[in-house]
């Protein structure tokens, strides 16, 4: 196993595994009967991988590990092994857990465009992300072949599970970059939904594919059969200029987002969970939601795209910022949205992207159909 320059040393890993951390992302909703209790085991098998819409609400701690496959490594056998290892880790039967109870541990695995193109150049997930403005990305932090997303209520599990899965992969992969992240407490936003605050103090992830019908339309891939039940993920790690944002008055901060900071209510009024009224104006003709407000520039109806399931986690290493993850069944949902934001979104003035990648999140699996088997045979 070879590690990229950004990976922690063995001493750092042991320190992380022995540290106590408290950390916190909103996901879409399943039917009430499908929601496991807080901290309860989440099955890794099924139509979809765990860690996207289940559990709900999502766990407070996340570790994303991005790696490349070494030359000549066949993806199919490696993914099947990883799936079996995930099953044992979630069940608590893998001795590499070091006695830690798995609780609500989930591991979600995706493959990057290079591997998807090996299976079919026209498949969803075969396209690389384009480059955007406000990026300062080292080569090792752009793209990648393999995503391992680890989520848990217990932060101690994250480095331990990552070490077990990377040991399972052995010298077939080398790590590019990793990011630990957390989120704040969930805030009720109406309609039975909750969402956390982002590092800038605003409730994040209010709009998304929350119902089963919305998820079937905008989240899950319906075909071809090799990818049906999967989804497409985008990861963007961003540094935030917190001092400059904090120097704004509260009304100025709210104009950047287009929502009230305390409540999440759109500046145009109405319930928190509702979309803003983008046509609403003051008596003197000014838009209540400014022209460059984030909720206007990123609005799906304005951009002409479907909904994305968005998650924003707080980070403090290598710099204060956030790890943005979105799930959608069409990469254009993300790329068209960011292209529209790139022109005049007020929020982007406070961000610098330092890592970026997209992955096909593989369909669900079980013992008869190993992880990745429908794509790689």
Overall mean confidence score, pLDDT: 91
Instruction: List the helices and strands in order.
Output: EHEHEHEHEEEHEHHHHEEHEH
Sequence stretches where pLDDT stays below 50 over 5 or more residues: 2-38
Radius of gyration, CA atoms, in whole angstroms? 20 Å
> Beta-strand level of the residues, as a percent range?
15-25%
**Fraction of residues in helices?**
10-25%
Outline:
With 377 residues, the protein is of the alpha+beta class. It contains eleven helices and eleven strands. A hairpin with a 2-residue loop joins strand 6 (186-190) and strand 7.
How would you describe this structure to a colleague?
This protein has 377 residues and is an alpha+beta fold. 24% of the residues lie in helices and 21% in strands. The protein is built from 11 helices and 11 strands. A 9-stranded mixed β-sheet has the order 1-5-2-4-3-11-8-10-9. A hairpin with a 5-residue loop joins strand 9 and strand 10. The radius of gyration is 20 Å and the shape is globular. The N terminus is likely disordered.
Question: Which properties best describe this structure?
Answer:
single chain; 377 residues; alpha+beta; nine-stranded mixed sheet; two-stranded antiparallel ribbon; 11 helices; globular; disordered N terminus
């Amino acid at each position: 196993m070879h590690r990229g320059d950004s990976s922690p040393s063995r001493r750092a890993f042991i320190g992380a595994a022995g540290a106590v951390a408290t950390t916190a992302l909103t996901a879409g909703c399943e039917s009430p009967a499908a929601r496991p209790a807080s901290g309860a085991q989440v099955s890794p098998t099924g139509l979809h991988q765990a860690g996207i819409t289940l559990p709900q609400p999502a766990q407070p701690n996340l570790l994303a590990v991005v790696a490349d496959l070494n030359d000549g490594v066949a993806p199919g056998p490696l993914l099947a092994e990883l799936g079996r290892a995930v099953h044992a880790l979630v069940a608590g039967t893998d001795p590499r857990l070091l006695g830690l109870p798995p609780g609500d541990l989930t591991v979600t695995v995706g493959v990057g465009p290079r591997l998807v193109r090996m299976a079919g150049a026209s498949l969803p997930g075969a396209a690389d992300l384009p480059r955007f403005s406000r990026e300062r990305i080292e080569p090792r932090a752009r793209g990648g072949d393999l995503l391992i997303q680890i989520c848990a209520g217990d932060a101690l599990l994250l480095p331990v599970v990552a070490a077990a899965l990377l040991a399972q992969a052995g010298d077939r992969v080398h790590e590019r970059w990793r990011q630990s992240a957390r989120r704040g407490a969930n805030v009720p936003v109406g309609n039975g939904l909750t969402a956390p605050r982002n590092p800038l103090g605003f409730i994040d992830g209010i709009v998304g594919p929350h119902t089963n019908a919305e998820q079937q339309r905008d989240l899950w891939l319906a075909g071809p059969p090799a990818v049906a039940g999967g989804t497409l993920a985008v990861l963007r790690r961003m540094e935030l200029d917190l001092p400059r944002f904090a120097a704004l008055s509260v009304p100025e901060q709210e104009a950047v987002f287009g929502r009230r900071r305390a409540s999440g209510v759109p500046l145009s009024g109405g319930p928190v969970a509702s979309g803003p009224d983008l046509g609403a104006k003051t008596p003197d003709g000014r838009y209540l939601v400014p022209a460059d407000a984030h909720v206007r520039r990123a609005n799906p109806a304005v951009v002409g795209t479907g909904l994305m399931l968005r998650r924003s986690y707080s980070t403090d290493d290598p710099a204060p910022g956030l790890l943005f993850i979105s799930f959608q069944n069409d990469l254009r949902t993300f790329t068209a949205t960011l292209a529209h934001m790139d022109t005049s979104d007020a929020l982007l003035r406070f961000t610098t992207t330092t890592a970026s990648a997209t992955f096909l999140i593989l369909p669900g699996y079980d013992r008869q159909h190993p992880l990745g088997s429908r794509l790689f045979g």
